[in-house]
Amino acid sequence: MLDLKIPLISLGVFIGIGLIVWWFRHIMYFYLFTGIGFLDFGTRVLVHYYPKIRQFLRLCLQLLLGSFLLFWLGLVIGVNFQFPEIFFDAYEGVVTGALIQLVVARLILPFFLGNAFCSRACWTGFFFEMTNTKKQDKSKNVPRSKIIAWTYLISLVCISLFVAFLWNPAADIETRKWWIIGENLFIISVGFILTFFVGSRAYCRILCPFITISGLISPLSLFKITPINTDNCTNCKKCDDNCPMLIDVNTYVINKKRINDNTCILCERCISSCKHNVLKLSAKTKNN
Ligand code: SF4
Ligand code: SF4
Ligand code: SF4
To answer: Which one of 3.30.930.10, 3.30.310.80, 3.30.70.20, 3.30.565.10 gives the CATH number of domain 222-281?
Structure first.
């Protein structure tokens, strides 16, 4: 039977966020977040009826949202969602996309759906999806280090403030657009190079400041990947092989624990890869 709990809660969260941001900023954001909410609702309902196209639907959603955020909001309107923009905008005394992403996707949404923004809306993440393979090469894996992640984040804050002080790329609309192109090309190139040397989604796993912040809250997420039919598990480890964040999913299954890793992006590739229906995205119950 179709369980609408997750789609409806997710829709409610997005509409609520849209109302709040509208109050503080502009009605455009209400339409934006409500639209995202309905798209998310629609794909989750479709996945119920057509589970085999779960990943196809997720990638379509990510392509749609990521393109809208990058091409329309970014290159047409000049709204930048990358982390340094928070400080460029703060220096100019304005609030735009990056700060809204920080508050909405990194401080509110993680209480409900962890780092799901990363697997459904981040355009940078969409490019990194191309590096996902069916079987991850774990021999190159460099595990996430809190020290590296926080050093990178703090360095980025200092560099951004310094750049804003010297020559703020957010000061005029034309410069903003050129900055968005250059900054994204730089991040995507660094991400591809890192992935080549230190394993799947290396930029996301090791450096990205957004997941460093949302990862503080995501372990508290209401919805997580949850082992349900653990007796069906054959230890084939396909869930491990398919996880782009190199999480040891199988160990969570063996221990009958929900995936509590703060880098889980709720892409649900582990669910799609398990032929024995062991995993499900669900809320906490007294049994897990
Ligand atoms: S970790 Fe960062 S770059 Fe990767 S998908 Fe999430 S926000 Fe995007
Ligand atoms: S893919 Fe499914 S059956 Fe295989 S190890 Fe993972 S949970 Fe178990
Ligand atoms: S544990 Fe599952 S949902 Fe989380 S990142 Fe890995 S494959 Fe995606």
So the answer is: 3.30.70.20
